[in-house]
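Morning!

This is the sequence you dropped in the shared folder:
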Amino acid sequence: MERRTFLRNSLLTAGGVLLGGSAIFRFMKDSKQEEDPPRPATIEKICQGNGKNVLVLMSAGTRQGNTDRLTDAYIKGLSEKGHTVTKVYLGSMRMAGCRGCGACQRNGNRCAVQDDMQQIYPLFAACDTLVMASPIYFWTITARLKSFIERLYAISVEDKYPEKETVLLMTAGDNNEHTFDQALNYFHIISGVLGGKETGTYLAGGCTGCENIARQIAPEHLEKAYKMGLVL
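The structure's back. C-alpha cells below.
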C-alpha cells in the first residue's frame, strides 16, 4: 500500500471514530436527560400552628393513591387542631439504607452517606410526633420507610434515640385478620426504641389500585383518619 493511501485511510478511520464517539456522547447525554427528569417537591410545609410539630413520612410510591389520600385526611385533622405539619414524600427521594460502615459512631453522629436523608435528619430532630404512612408490601412496611428507620442509627448515642410520639397509618388490599400483624409488631418495636409513646394507629384494609374504583380506599377510612388527626 502506498504511503499516501495509508495516510488517507488512517485519517478517514480516525475521523469516523471521532464522529462515532461524538454521536455516542450525544446519545448518552440524551439518555441521561431522559432518565433524570425533574423531580417533584419531596418536602412540603403543610401548615404552621401553635400545637405540636408533626413530621409525616408518606412512603408509598404513588402520589394521590390510597396511602397518600389516607395521610392527607389525617393531616387535615392535624391542621384544624392547630399543629405544625411537614410532609415528606419518601418515594421521591434518593435515600439508601444503612451501610453498616460505623462512620457515624466515629464522627459525632453524622451519617457519612450524602443523599436525601440529610434533609430529613433536622426535620426528625425538631419534630414532636413522627407519623409513618405506608402501604403493605409483602406483609410489612415499604423499603423506603425501612431505609429511613435504618438510617436513624447514625443519631443514636449509646443505643439511645430521641424520644418521639409515633403514629402509624397503613393501607392494604387484603382485609383479613392478620394482614397487618407483621407491620404492626415492627411498629411497636420502633416506637419502643423512640420512647414508647404510641399516639395512634390506623389500618385501612380492603383497598387496592386506584384505577379500580370499586376497590379504592373507602370514604369511612378517610373520615376516621381525619377524626384521629383531630385528637392528637
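Headline: Helices lie at 3-35, 66-81, 117-126, 143-151, 181-193, 219-230.

More detail when I'm at my desk.
O.
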